[in-house]
Amino acid sequence: MFKFFKRMKTIVSSELNSMLDKAEDPVKMLDQFLREMGEEIQEVEAAVAKQIANEKILKRKFEDAEAMVVKRQEQAEKAVNAGEDELARRALAEKKEYENQVTLLQSSYEQAKTDSQVLKSKLDEMKKEYQEMNLKKDSLKARAEAAKTRTKINRSMSSIGGDESRRGFERMEEKVLRFEAEAETSEDLAVQSRTLDDEFRKLDSDVEDELAELKKAMGKE
């Protein structure tokens, strides 16, 4: 019974990495182990209660036998005082039987008492270990979740920097450069397509503007 509990404790304490390697969900496994530990404790509690009840029964029988030894002794003395030797013999004979029972019951009671103390000590130890595992569970669950999150982030970062993503980015960059080159080319072509008359009209327009500004400055408008 106690070996099973020890095995559960060992798994929870030292084999979290093994569970991760086997692709088992450590959070669910920890909950399962603790449920099994709790069930094991309940079974041990029932066994301890049964042992304590047995101890109490033996104690009562032992004390009853002791009381009968005293009673038969007193009855034998009373019979002797009354001159009833035969009655005294019968009382002493039963006293002897009860004395034998006292010897046997005392041994059984003391052994049962020792067994009860051992079982109660083991049960207390199991409960203490269970409480420790229950507290440790929260820490292990947090560590497992953190590890899963880090793995997810690392995988995402790896995919972002992968060859496929990089090639896609480079293709978009090339398109932007091509659009810019096409825009510059169209501007050059627009300039080249202007006629000589267009150039002179622009020049005449600039001269007229400059003349108007000069007249305005000289007050000759």
From TrEMBL:
From which domain of life does this come? Answer: Bacteria
Q: Which residues cross the membrane?
A: none
**Which residue stretches belong to region Disordered?**
141-168
Q: Name one Pfam family in it.
A: PspA_IM30
Q: Which family does it belong to?
A: Belongs to the PspA/Vipp/IM30 family.
Name of the protein in question: Phage shock protein A
